[in-house]
Task: structure prediction
Amino acid sequence: MAVPIAWMWENSLVPDTYDMATMGYHDYGGGSHGHRHDHQHDHAGTAVADLVEESGRPADVSVTLTVRRQDGRYTVNGTSPGPTIRATVGDLVQVRLVNENIGDGTTLHWHGVDVPNAMDGVAGVTQDAVMPGDDFVYRFVVDRVGTYWYHSHQVSHEQVRNGLFGALVVDPEDPDPAVLDRTVLLHEYGTRATLDGRPGTTAVDALPGRPVRLRVVNTDNVAQTVWVTGAAYEVWAVDGTDLNGPEPVTGKGIEVTAGGRVDLGFVVPPGGARVDFGGTTALTLGGDPSGGREAEPPGELIDLLDYGEPTGTGLDAGHPDREFDYRIGRRLGFLDGRPGRWWTINGHIFPNVPMYMVDEGDVVVFHIDNGSGEPHPMHLHGHHVLVLSRNGEPATGSPWWVDSLDVATGDSYDIAFVADNPGLWMDHCHNLPHAAEGLVTHLMYTDVTSSFSIGGRTDNHPE
Ligand code: C2O
Ligand code: CU
Result:
């Protein structure tokens, strides 16, 4: 064979300890190279560790979360899911994470909240893993309403799967007290599907006529289909952003991306309403209109590409400052010396993947393309992105902002965002074993320098 296998093997090795910012190759997306002088020993710029919330402001919500490992399961303040953190928009949330006994160390990532970079909770990228007996204080302002969640970002494919997560809900200033506001977390422990940690059907008392806001958080590795029986429903929000002009639907399901959230709105009918989650768990409100029979999964799904009414987005993606490709494939090769069929990004196997470079203020467009044979729920930290089109077909419904986007195999998406949150941000697949198999890149601001490292003598293993 003409391919220099030994060289390929050596080239694939991940150094013992490494600085994420120096991995792979810089991709400037056709934009400027900023103020970076482009070698490792340049320390000009802002360090990741310094990108924090302003220090003088007192906390509006203050929580301590103590995490523990027992018999391979993880709990937060003694339960899994952990407690739901509830705040009002504009609040400064302060969370003290205490690691009681998790030997691998742990962190908390605020999925969907665009926190200052040093509060993002990614071990080896934005902080060091918090070791047993240690603590770490997260401080950030929640500047938008919506449904979010938190989870470990240290050995995350194991810690999240086995329970280290919870919900974070940000209320508006004046929530409507007439609305029954309920959050549910979907999670499979081992092979056991649960709703808020319980299998089967959960019954909730509700009088007919009561409006409901149901916040669905998918903490699993794969997408879940949700459907409502007995009532028409609307999709009020996706990934913490309210949709514009959502229309009522019946007989259709809605898919919730792995890591994603949807808020559903409906009114409890006289016979009650039933919400099914992937056919494994269910919630009934004011009775079960199916009479306890298996509810049929709908044949059709809501397509968010044309759901709701268009309105201004404040983002003009017509002339972006940077345009990047994020092409996901799969091929034979070596990942850290191990042979296999590995995920590729623009043809490269981790760690030789692109580092997407941006300047603050840039309008950025990504062309995501999945030719890998499996779906990938893609998640960019620190930013919300606007879906422009799928397979060349433009979005025509409500502005569709996401932090987690399910990209089916064979599909391509154009997405856009404004680079308005300086830092070093992970951009990875939220099917967490895929991330551990190298489906990870980073978005880096040109004048930011890294503060942490991964592997080797550090305890940091974010995936
Ligand atoms: Cu939900 Cu990189 O995370
Ligand atoms: Cu994936």
Summary: Residues 109, 111, 151, 153, 259, 379, 381, 426, 428, 430 surround CU-O-CU linkage (ligand 1) (CB under 6 Å). Residues 105 and 283 are 35 Å apart (CA to CA). Helices lie at 5-12, 156-159, 432-436. The chain has a mean pLDDT of 93.
